[in-house]
């Protein structure tokens, strides 16, 4: 498959970003492409809006899994793309899942006509950005039936150059928990604040207090994040808001800090209830466990990458990003790595423009890596 074909696939997918578990057009596109491949060695199953493709090896003693996530983000695209901008105005592939899928299809295309010795499993997984497709997929009969012995995945990294690959043994990504807080008070006329109970004021105070948790309650030698991405409340400038909602995410490197942060959120919320005479409910949404790379497999992969012409291997630090791929790694030995795509704008930025040259490079690297793995 040449690089223009890969770029075209990426651009097609870029135009149809969809929410988690609603990746209908994406699934249809992927299935159409997979159906067009030689199918002598392939078996295909769908699971929800995801797809599992098994390449049956000549001997098939082991199975190596490669996972690509397929959902988009609720971001209004602001890239300079003229011809392949998102056709879903409120959604964008701003986390590189269009790259992840294209690379998986590129590698799959090779193995559809070059039968490996062992089996390969390509996993197109929904809902990585939330509520999380990995855990229910792992529990599904479809996955159990083809469960791999080893598994890996990549994530694009705007901060690295094309040709750089970065990862580390052990902890790579943080534990995460979503955070949704609903506040209910008493609405009223803007001119009579003493008769009402203003949830805009209560929510504002809570957001400020939440920012003290990492600074004052998390061990400075550990790491934590409390980010509030959304604050909503009120209906009109001269009406006191009866309700407000705060949406955010909590991150920690250790499980103990996650527990501690949640205890502090709950304590601060109790204070708001008393102080502002309102009712507050907390919902932690979906939680992802850490991404923990298998040490022996990273030693093997880093050695392999370092020997590969045109790729620089970087031993990176852990990051506070989250990934439900961590659930695969809890059960199956494997690893995740960053793939450099050299964008001036980062992940979850409406202007993210990853360099497409990273796609053919990753396809060659992984095709070669899997050829060696599945033949050894
Ligand atoms: C790689 C990446 O950006 N992953 C997302 C995962 C989201 C987890 C969950 N929805 C949350 O917000 O806690 C990330 O934001 O790190």
Automatic annotation (TrEMBL):
<dbReference type="Pfam" id="PF07687">
    <property type="entry name" value="M20_dimer"/>
</dbReference>
<dbReference type="GO" id="GO:0046872">
    <property type="term" value="F:metal ion binding"/>
</dbReference>
<keyword id="KW-0220">Diaminopimelate biosynthesis</keyword>
<dbReference type="InterPro" id="IPR036264">
    <property type="entry name" value="Bact_exopeptidase_dim_dom"/>
</dbReference>
<dbReference type="GO" id="GO:0050118">
    <property type="term" value="F:N-acetyldiaminopimelate deacetylase activity"/>
</dbReference>
<comment type="function">
    <text>Catalyzes the conversion of N-acetyl-diaminopimelate to diaminopimelate and acetate.</text>
</comment>
<keyword id="KW-0464">Manganese</keyword>
<comment type="similarity">
    <text>Belongs to the peptidase M20A family. N-acetyldiaminopimelate deacetylase subfamily.</text>
</comment>
<dbReference type="GO" id="GO:0019877">
    <property type="term" value="P:diaminopimelate biosynthetic process"/>
</dbReference>
<feature type="active site">
    <location>
        <position position="69"/>
    </location>
</feature>
<feature type="domain" description="Peptidase M20 dimerisation">
    <location>
        <begin position="181"/>
        <end position="272"/>
    </location>
</feature>
<keyword id="KW-0457">Lysine biosynthesis</keyword>
<keyword id="KW-0028">Amino-acid biosynthesis</keyword>
<dbReference type="InterPro" id="IPR002933">
    <property type="entry name" value="Peptidase_M20"/>
</dbReference>
<dbReference type="InterPro" id="IPR023905">
    <property type="entry name" value="AcetylDAP_deacetylase"/>
</dbReference>
<feature type="binding site">
    <location>
        <position position="348"/>
    </location>
    <ligand>
        <name>Mn(2+)</name>
    </ligand>
</feature>
<dbReference type="InterPro" id="IPR011650">
    <property type="entry name" value="Peptidase_M20_dimer"/>
</dbReference>
<feature type="binding site">
    <location>
        <position position="95"/>
    </location>
    <ligand>
        <name>Mn(2+)</name>
    </ligand>
</feature>
<feature type="binding site">
    <location>
        <position position="155"/>
    </location>
    <ligand>
        <name>Mn(2+)</name>
    </ligand>
</feature>
<dbReference type="GO" id="GO:0009089">
    <property type="term" value="P:lysine biosynthetic process via diaminopimelate"/>
</dbReference>
<keyword id="KW-0479">Metal-binding</keyword>
<protein>
    <recommendedName>
        <fullName>N-acetyldiaminopimelate deacetylase</fullName>
        <ecNumber>3.5.1.47</ecNumber>
    </recommendedName>
</protein>
<dbReference type="Pfam" id="PF01546">
    <property type="entry name" value="Peptidase_M20"/>
</dbReference>
<feature type="binding site">
    <location>
        <position position="97"/>
    </location>
    <ligand>
        <name>Mn(2+)</name>
    </ligand>
</feature>
<feature type="binding site">
    <location>
        <position position="129"/>
    </location>
    <ligand>
        <name>Mn(2+)</name>
    </ligand>
</feature>
<feature type="active site" description="Proton acceptor">
    <location>
        <position position="129"/>
    </location>
</feature>
<dbReference type="InterPro" id="IPR017439">
    <property type="entry name" value="Amidohydrolase"/>
</dbReference>
<keyword id="KW-0378">Hydrolase</keyword>
<comment type="pathway">
    <text>Amino-acid biosynthesis; L-lysine biosynthesis via DAP pathway; LL-2,6-diaminopimelate from (S)-tetrahydrodipicolinate (acetylase route): step 3/3.</text>
</comment>
